[in-house]
Specification:
Length: 239
């Protein structure tokens, strides 16, 4: 799964890197957690205006349009890419409302005899990238509340990340982003885009357990742990 990620680039640099305007990102984020509002890229503005890739602000934790209770979003922070196109909670968004979630790293926790240890995974180049996501607009029955929310798609981990965790978020490279957002892309082609990201560009290292608490959102989350006696070796770029 993917339960936390980072986006430390400033707003202007992020817009230039992705070639998308309208991304609102006022401060570096070191521990983005579910239920928080974050920048996203949609095919048209989340307010229904305009065409082509545009910036939007969405809340993490997808609430299907048909949900009676928006708290369902707390359980829908991830969707399995292998089955999202057919699951009731995700199939409408898979057909009509796909998005990209900018990031420059994400966390996974490795199970060890001494407990779970967090690792920060990123591109070896430290460049930003995008997760494949799905988004929905939900309205309360009385019309007093409107939520625009998203989920991050996951897939099987590649050979580099498998020693840390069996799943990883779907990362879409620049060549695949436009096809993912395009509402006219056929379903079978969409599913072909959702495989594991190549291992070669990735790097990872163990980081502080400060990241375990979503109240911690500062550079300290990326600090290395204080040398445990049975410390795991740092993961380096895959050969």
């Amino acid at each position: 799964m993917c339960g936390r990620y980072t986006l430390t680039l400033d707003q202007e640099a992020l817009q230039v890197a992705l070639g998308v305007g309208g991304l609102v990102h006022p401060a570096p984020r070191y521990n983005i957690a579910p239920s928080q509002e974050v920048p996203a890229v949609v095919h048209q503005g989340a307010n229904g205006e305009g065409v082509g890739p545009m910036g939007a602000t969405l809340r993490w934790g997808l609430v299907p349009f048909w949900a009676d209770d928006p708290s369902i979003g707390n359980r829908l922070i991830n969707a399995r890419s292998e089955t999202a196109h057919e699951k009731p909670s995700f199939r409408n968004a898979f057909r009509r409302q796909r998005c990209l979630i900018p990031a420059d790293g994400f966390y996974e926790w490795k199970k060890t005899a001494g407990g779970k240890r967090p690792f920060w995974i990123h591109l070896e180049s430290k460049e930003p990238f995008t997760f494949a996501g799905l988004w929905e607009r939900w309205s309360a029955s009385d019309g007093d509340e409107v939520l625009e929310t998203f989920t991050i798609l996951t897939t099987e981990a590649n050979e580099f990340l498998r020693p840390i965790h069996p799943r990883m978020p779907v990362i879409l490279g620049p060549d695949h982003r436009e096809r993912w957002l395009d509402p006219d892309t056929p379903g079978d082609e969409l599913r072909q885009l959702l495989g594991s990201f190549p291992a070669g560009p990735l790097a990872a290292r163990e980081v502080s357990t400060r990241v375990n608490s979503p109240t911690n959102d500062d550079p300290g989350c990326l600090e290395s742990p204080e040398g445990p006696e049975d410390g795991l070796p740092l993961f380096q770029q895959a050969d």
